[in-house]
Amino acid sequence: MPRVAVILAAALAVNGIAGEDAAAELLSSRPITIVIPFTPGASADTIQRIVAKKVTENTGQTIVVESRAGGGGAIGAAAVKQAPPDGHMLFQANAGTHAANVSLYPTLSYDPIKDFRPITLMWSFPSCSRFLSTARPSRWPISSPSPSRSPAG
């Protein structure tokens, strides 16, 4: 899995690690923690754990995957913001933590633009959307209220 090693190396370079000696020291000293803003067992959590295992096998670098769910990802993001910016704690951001939360929560403890730097797109998941068709209501197992009735009455 050489691509994962390249991604890890890019992550270290983007986080301001200068020189080969510093990168070698970083890779051999402390574990890198990746915070996932979802519950354990969620798809993003599971895939991150698989990738972390392969990176550890290929590089010898210990990677810890930590789930910190809650607040639409705000709890995990706040924890990473409070960590020293030394490249040992990374955050698996998503559209919720870095786009939707800004509109949903009037006071966030983090600023997605100022407090984080993007490293790479690790993966994306296709969205499944279900559209209710009013053209053929008999084909759908759910019923909708008739236009003459209000939902409450």
Describe this structure in words.
This protein has helices at residues 2-14, 20-28, 43-59, 74-82, 95-104, and strands at 32-36, 63-67, 89-91. The chain has 153 residues and is mainly α. The chain has one domain (2-126): D-Maltodextrin-Binding Protein, domain 2 (3-Layer(aba) Sandwich), CATH 3.40.190.150. The protein has a 3-stranded parallel β-sheet. α1 (2-14) packs across α3. The longest helix has 17 residues, at 43-59. The protein is globular and about 40 Å long. Mean pLDDT is 75; it is low at 129-144.
Strand and helix layout:
Blueprint: H1 2-14, H2 20-28, E1 32-36, H3 43-59, E2 63-67, H4 74-82, E3 89-91, H5 95-104
Parallel strand pairs: 1-2, 1-3
Features:
single chain, D-Maltodextrin-Binding Protein, domain 2, three-stranded parallel beta sheet
Structure, briefly:
The protein has 153 residues and is mainly alpha-helical.
Rounded to the nearest angstrom, the radius of gyration is 21 Å
Number of beta strands: 3
List the strand order in the largest sheet: 2-1-3
Q: Which fold name is given in CATH as the topology?
A: D-Maltodextrin-Binding Protein, domain 2
Mean pLDDT level: 75
Spell the H/E element sequence: HHEHEHEH
Q: What would you give as the CATH superfamily?
A: Bordetella uptake gene, domain 1
- Beta-strand portion reads 5-15%
Number of helix segments?
5
Q: Can you identify the CATH class?
A: Alpha Beta
Structural class: mainly alpha
Note the main sheet: 3 strands, parallel
Task: State the low-pLDDT regions, or none.
Answer: 129-144
CATH level-two architecture: 3-Layer(aba) Sandwich
How would you sum up the global shape?
globular
Number of domains: 1
State the end-to-end distance. Answer: 60 Å
Helical content stands at 25-40%
